[in-house]
Amino acid sequence: MKLIGNISAIICFSILLSCCDEIPPTITPCQTSRITLVEEFTGVSCVNCPIGSEKLELLSSQNPGKIIVVGIHAGFFAVPSTSNNNLDLRTADGDLLESIHLGPVSGYPSATINRKIFDGENELPVNQNKWAGYINNELCNRPIAELNASSNYNTVDSTVSIVVDMIPSTYYEGLTEEDLAMTIMITESNIVGYQLTPQGSEQNYVHKHVLRDILSSDYTGDLLINKENVLSPQQVSISDYKIPAEWNPDNCYVIAFIHYKGDNNKTVQQAIEIKL
């Protein structure tokens, strides 16, 4: 009877372990100014994508101001249909990022971390189990430059003008490894609409960090400095960009980031996010 009791105890303990909630991912803080860009590939018909979004929200809350999230609705799971109330959060630039520039995306949810291919990986997007570790690695790297940004939204004609300055870091004195570019985009949060979840379909799901448009002249970014040239201060400006009527400017953000533009090296070096 004692043996049976021990076996029962082991079984009960195993059941308790299987019922425990997943241990939240954590990140060890690093004393650098590095801000990490996370581009999450998602869709309104992706049942597991809300779990990925929750993980990114948790990681961001643990590291205020150190992680910038962009939700890219692209691919099969983002296609509007009657089953998802025809909600369409796709963009032409997002489709190009998913299918050509950062993809192809083999599974959802997945994300690029500073557009970097990490050791042991064969592609840019990685699954959610690896996000915390790779974000931690990037936060501990010092950026080659810093960014300052400002925006001026005109409520009369719903246009915005943006100025982004890049200032080389004082410690960085080398030549650029690849062509260096800047990308500027707009995201919108608090978009209420359909989302498939593990619990079923939710009609009033709150979509956050949704990519609305890339304002740069090319979705791969605008060239700043050619390969093997000295890093120097740069300024990029965008004037009188018209905000579409269906966007809520109060929930919109401007994101700018500098990144390499090589065929095999697209790594983001620094990023910044400000209110529209």
Summarize it.
The chain has 276 residues and is an alpha+beta fold. Helix content is 18%, strand content 36%.
Walk me through what this model shows.
Strand 13 (252-260) and strand 14 (268-275) form a beta hairpin. The relative contact order is 0.18. The chain is globular and about 55 Å long. The protein is 18% helix and 36% strand. The model is unreliable at 1-24 (pLDDT under 50). With 276 residues, it is an alpha+beta fold.
Q: Which helices and strands occur, and which strands form pairs?
A:
Elements: H1 2-19, E1 36-42, H2 49-62, E2 67-73, H3 92-101, E3 110-113, E4 126-127, H4 131-139, E5 145-154, E6 159-168, E7 180-188, E8 191-197, E9 200-207, E10 210-214, E11 222-225, E12 234-242, E13 252-260, E14 268-275
Parallel strand pairs: 1-2
Antiparallel strand pairs: 1-3, 3-4, 5-6, 6-12, 7-10, 7-11, 7-13, 8-9, 13-14
Q: Determine Rg (CA atoms, Å).
A: 21 Å
In the CATH hierarchy, the architecture is: Sandwich
How many β strands by DSSP?
14
- Label the overall shape: globular
How widely separated are the two ends?
Answer: 70 Å
- H-E order: HEHEHEEHEEEEEEEEEE
- What percentage of the residues does DSSP assign to strands (E)? 35-45%
Considering the protein shown, what is the CATH homologous superfamily?
A: Immunoglobulins
Determine the structural class based on helices, strands and strand pairing. Answer: alpha+beta
CATH class: Mainly Beta
CATH domain fold name: Immunoglobulin-like
